[in-house]
Amino acid sequence: MVKKIKSFLFENKTTKQTIAKNTFWLTFGNIIGRLLRVGIVVYAARILGAEGWGLFSYAIGLIAFLTIFTDLGIRAVLTREVAKDNNEEKTTRILSTSLFIEFALIAISALVVIFIAPHLTALPGAKEILLITLTVLVFDSLREFGFAVIRATEKMEWEAGIFILANLSIAVFGVIFLQISPTVKSFTLAYSVGTGVGTVAVFYVLRGHLKKLVSSFSTKLIKPILSSGWPFAVSAMLGGLLINIDILIIGFYRTATEVGFYSAALRPVQLLYIIPSILAISIFPAMSRLANKAAEAVRSVLEQSITLVFLAAIPIALGGVVLGREIISLLFGSEFIPATASFQILIITILVNFPAVILSDAIFAHDKQKILIRFVAIAGVINVIFDFILIPKFGIVGSAWTTLLAQAIGNIYLWHKTRQINHFRVLRHLKKILLSSIIMTVAVWFMALLGFNVIINIILSAIIYLGILAIMKESLISKIKSSLIAKITG
Fold this sequence. Notes:
There is one protein chain. With 490 residues, the chain is an all-alpha fold. It has one domain. Helices cover 84% and strands 0% of the residues. The protein contains 19 helices and no strands. The protein has helices spanning 2-10, 15-67, 74-84, 88-115, 126-152, 156-180, 184-205, 213-216, 222-253, 256-290, 295-322, 324-332, 340-346, 350-365, 369-394, 396-421, 431-449, 454-471, 475-489. The longest helix is centred in the N-terminal third of the chain and has 53 residues, at 15-67. Residues 483-490 have low confidence and may be disordered.
């Protein structure tokens, strides 16, 4: 049994087993890693207060926006091309050329941070920590490049381990540095050091792939790589704008304290966004192989994947709305209660975001990147326009409503275009999930009225939800259970 479990977790055999293995590792790694990150975020927010936390969030948000320019789609192209072709010589050339492009983009972004970024912030104190966050940009960019190589080889167990190590390092150094000096600058430095540990680890794991990088560089591959990646790059840039523009505009019109409140509302929701990403990363290599070759197989993967993310998204969104105040208070303390309304609105966005992640990967696997550009452009333009209209008048609540509206409209377009590529159907699979979620939400509300502790409420509600699905014999639950048992037992 031990040998079979080890084989299942550390070897790539069949497509289904590899997807299951990678999903397990990414789920495990992200759960542990994100919990560590949440722990230090909560600790730092409580130590720094709303204003200090807002200042850190603003600086990191600005750097996160600039980080998207260090990719230009080359990581996704790298993953796709290596997954499609096992030719070692070609793989090495692509890897070498892509890494050199990455270094050039990082250098350009560093110049932007040094000479332009200081003029983009209106909050006092933000400029002081920008040079420290520049190191975060460098470390994050290089680590994500390394992860692209790992994903191409479908060895997500390495990615999971490194992700946990990086977040553990951030948490440990964060606590130590804040104990020594409870300031924004101190925590930013700890964040940078922890991120650097993860970057060193990923390149150590990939040391065997890096030996021939200098000699394998090919100027002829620069144009094909950038040409293939630019539609995805534009989509990523617009997506980065969509994610980070809210905090940047809030920081321009309002105060650091309000930035802190909005960041507190956004952080738990962004943590949840990782759920569909885990599944999407796992299925992307397989979907790339099946795209344009096996439409029925792609349809099956799409329907099951989207149904699976809805199985998680619907109860989380409904429960989050009901328990919004209690969740914010539990995580960040009573000082952050003004973030409640924004959190309750933002938690609804997972109903849009979860399936959109799967659809975006399906479109990219079919080499239809221009659809992603239009999708994100629609959402991005709406988000920016309404941010400038609503934030000055309604503050962070206006920003939250803008985010939900922009994502919803963009997602309508994305669904329409994906169904033109592959006419999948999902609604027929959601009846039991919807009914179970509604019953669970009533239970959540009733327990909240009775004064149940929020953690106990969440645990009991999850048991109720899964129990109802089991009683109604939801097929997706049965498939997951039987698939795991079959893979483990051989």
